[in-house]
Amino acid sequence: MKRRQFIGLIGGATVVWPLAVRAQQPERIRRIGVLMGTSEGDPEGQARVAAFRQALQELKWTESNNLRIDIFWAAGNAARASAYAADIVKLAPDVILGTATPTMRALRQATQTIPIVFAGLSDPVGEGIVTSLSKPGGNITGFSSFDAPIAGKWLQLLKEMSPAATRATVMFNPDTSPHSIFWPALETAAPSTGITLIRATVRDIGGIEETLGALAGDPGNCLVIAPDSFTSSHRALIIKLVAQLRVPAVYPIRYFALDGGLMSYGSDFVDQHRQAASYIDRILKGEKPADLPVQTPNKFEFVINLKTAKAMGLSVPPSLLARADEVIE
Q1: Per-residue 3-state assignment (H helix, E strand, C coil) for the chain
Q2: pLDDT tens sequence across 112-164
Q3: Is residue 21 part of a domain?
Q4: Residue 243, domain extent
Q5: Is residue 23 a part of any domain in this protein?
């Protein structure tokens, strides 16, 4: 081989070799921080995380390849949510998933730069999380879970289930519930149902027991559990006490009815976590949260636990059964 030909081959190799090396380099691992409102042992929380992970995998984001997910569980505790929000920000993730009102309050305070997508937030504008639904602005966007008129629906369902109902105790933790969006709607709907509202704020188990104990012995009493990560985290106790007292109750999320509550009407939170993956995918690919409008709920579920109704001596009207998306027998 002539010297000139040999040098030409070497020169060609030096051009091709770095390209081959670059082609073999693994894709950069992206990081997602997740702040869940539920406890880690809550099956519903695990179902939401599983749906989120599955949706990411369908979008080609896998933890074994190009993704790392760090999950923190606030368990309906506002102080814990704030501490975990600070911990997540220290990890400097590419994007954060927030999952309830207290988690989003904490994340909003912890960072104004890291992109955040929420799933299951009732009042993002009223809470000051976004500027508007169509133009969220800043570093946050996501999927809202409720709108105010749904609160009136809860009272209507209670009245149909229990025509004798005249007083509805509305129980929530003011530190963790977006109660400001629901209370005015409840006040607007109450006169047409003939139900008087009783506002009951609780912050601990003792408060739950005291509030529910006061409902005993009066057939005119009924109960509304407002959307709240605190009451959700203590739903086993609430459902147990309500069953013992035989008080008609309506809950905002399907898993209350699945766990023995009388009936529920609200959004599909598992599906919202699935949808949140689509926005996170877009952000990881370069889009900004400010350019992604907040999506409002388009799927609601009405569930009746017929077994619980029978145990409470309630006869469920056929009109309610016909409208139910699911009847548990």
Answers
A1: CCHHHHHHHHHHHHHHHHHHHHHHCCCCCEEEEEEECCCCCCHHHHHHHHHHHHHHHHCCCCCCCCEEEEEEECCCCHHHHHHHHHHHHHCCCCEEEECCHHHHHHHHHHCCCCCEEEEEECCCCCCCCCCCCCCCCCCEEEEECCCCCHHHHHHHHHHHHCCCCCEEEEEECCCCCCHHHHHHHHHHHHHHHCCEEEEEECCCHHHHHHHHHCCCCCCCEEEEECCCHHHHHCHHHHHHHHHHHCCCEEECCHHHHHCCCCEEEEECHHHHHHHHHHHHHHHHCCCCHHHCCCECCCCEEEEEEHHHHHHCCCCCCHHHHHHCCEEEC
A2: 999 999 998 888 998 899 999 999 999 999 999 887 888 999 999 999 999 99
A3: no
A4: 150-267+301-328
A5: no
Residue 110 and residue 249 share a domain: no
Mean pLDDT of 16-40: 73
291 in any annotated domain: yes
Model's pTM, two decimal places?
0.80
